Amino acid sequence: MSIVDHERVVYRTCPLCEATCGLEITVKGDKVSRIRGDRDDVFSHGFICPKGSTLKQLHEDPDRLRKPLIKRNGEHVEVSWQEAWAEVERGLMGVINTHGRGSVGTYVGNPNAHNLAPLLYNRVWMQAIGTKQRFSASSVDQLPKQVASGYMFGTASSVAIPDLDRTDYVLMLGANPYASNGSLCTAPDFPGRLEALRARGGKLVVVDPRRSRTAEEADEWLAIRPNGDALLLAAIAHTILASGKADVGDHVRAHIAGFDQLSGALAPFTPEAIADASGIDAKTIRRIAGELSDAPTALVYGRIGTTTVSFGTTASWLVDVINTITGNLDKAGGVMFPLPAAGNQTTRGESGRGKGFRIGHGYSRVRQSPEAIGEYPVSVMAEEMLTPGEGQIRAMVTVAGNPLLSTPNGEQLEKAFESLEFMVAVDIYLNETTRHANVILPPPSHLERSHYDMVFTAFSIRNVANFSEAVFERDADQPDEWQILAKLAGIAQGAGADVEPAVIDEYVFGSLLSNLLKDKSSPIHGRSEEEIRELVDATKLSGPERILDTLLRTGPYGEAFGANPKGVNLQTLRDQPHGVDFGPLEPRIPEVLRTPSGKVELAPTELLADLDRLEQAMHVVDADELLLVGRRHLRSNNSWMHNVSVLVKGKARCTLQMHPEDAIRAGVVDGGSARITSRVGSVVAVVELTNDIRPRVVSLPHGWGHGVRGTKMTIAAERAGVNSNVLTDEDQMDPLSGTSVLNGIPVTVAAVIHS
Predict the structure, then answer these.
(1) Among residues 113, 251, 468, 551, which one has the fewest Cβ atoms lying within 10 Å of its Cβ?
(2) Rounded to an integer, what distance in angstroms lies between the CA atom of residue 316 and that of residue 631?
(3) Which of 10, 43, 60 is the last residue of a domain?
(4) Which range marks the domain in which residue 517 is found?
């Protein structure tokens, strides 16, 4: 049989969303012939959504960049890697040498969380640049949950995860897993798990301004006013506390601090007081509070609809206040803490105690916005580029991000990127943001790199581990993704365009090993570096796989370089391509805690202080105000997926959804055009009338607005849509986390008459 006819099957974890579904990929010669769900995957059991089958199209997409690009005379042209690296050194070091390291800004996008190399090497090149001007997609997404969890449990990784498979009751706010498959809750076939909950007699209540696909399948839909989640949660918590039913449970009672402060702090938030501002009547609030208290097990789960609002951190805190006072914290069927195989902040350092969490290690130059988890809010990024003075951003480095479509005030950000002296982008597409880059460095296809979910195993409803081998070999001149990032670090350090990535890799690994040997909680603490080095060298691994192998060996289930022969390492995962199942989540309090007190801080000072602002908000209700919210679709969670025909075909999705009552007021009709205007911008979109949305709420999806000059995303340009973030106000954010307000934006809507 010739190589052209040779057929093989490869197993791989899908990297396109947080569900981490297992894929069975059939390869014939050098082509993918079929992708389907891996029926033997220990976690997903064959489930696959429409996105998973498109790795073939992404790999073969003619628009995907395969050679570096340099901008010459306003146009991007292909060049050799050697020429590209020389231009990176010239431009990046030119800005650093002229304006200082603080004049370089960095932005990393959502796909970084889905790829092994960036998770291990992004910090390396950012530290090499030496700038504090760091930004990411976190502050238009999950950051408030991490900040609230940090205050309560000690680290930004200490997120309590819904135990979906064993619960009796789910109150879900701002989440639509029938479209997004879950977030900060890694669960393949999330919809199937919700259906199993209902089949065993449990109840699902969905809180959302829209009757989403998930709300359609729920036992009950509560059509809340945008930004009313924190008020609703405060009223539920108040009701439970006032009823005398609040009980944290014997299993965690000795490890809770701040319980006695809650009743007084939440006293103003009676169901009657918040009913108008939340849009949920008092009787319903009291009933839901009673159901949560009385259910054998229950959990509250809030996601992006609760975090991308002005009370995102407070809402995230109140989610876990309710989970705690109903006795469902760290309990099967409630919310629990994963134990990831490669370890994280909750598995390292002193068990049960730590330095705790805070924001404000630094402040942005112009607006003095505090840092959170090492970065500034994306809403201040444009002003940091446009405002003259010492520390003004003159150059940007972006990795797998498209902030011009995904972050606030896209028109202001467009001007900001146009003002840069130099820009480097690591990306597979010439998109709305990377078209501003002087150099674009394309990593290999997803199918040409190995993969392990460093992030999502730490937010998973079950403790599992899967390693994915590369499906195809890279072209001889195509560097691996880690090599691109390592070389970028070397150039930023001043080592020149000829620096070898292996030199940087050795530094990274050496630092990791040194830290592990010094950490008293590490299973290799006290052993000699020479001994461990010899064992590492025997594997002949390098790059991210060497780091991953070491993290697995020293992780909670690891073989500790021979000290625990029954433990795991990378070879264990290679030998079991369908994954390794370490079992359901187990109670972890108190060892999971990293607070200075060694207790769950149920009433952090920072969160209690924000209740005054929340109380003021419940008295300011404009019943006639029109509020804009976003939405997601199963086939197109992120902007870069819009260039896959199979994911965007069919009925247009970038429409303005409106309730018929609001359409009459605005004078617009179904299928007609409407101009949507906010404080900062205006867009025109096609109207889609529906009763599945609360009156006085309109909805535009996130991540559209393609087809601008200088991009090369052919399919996306054909279905361009409009950029909802032209309407997002950079002045509106959650003050506790710096997260942008993407939901609940005041807008006006007027008909557009085409001549």
Answers:
(1) 251
(2) 19
(3) 60
(4) 501-565
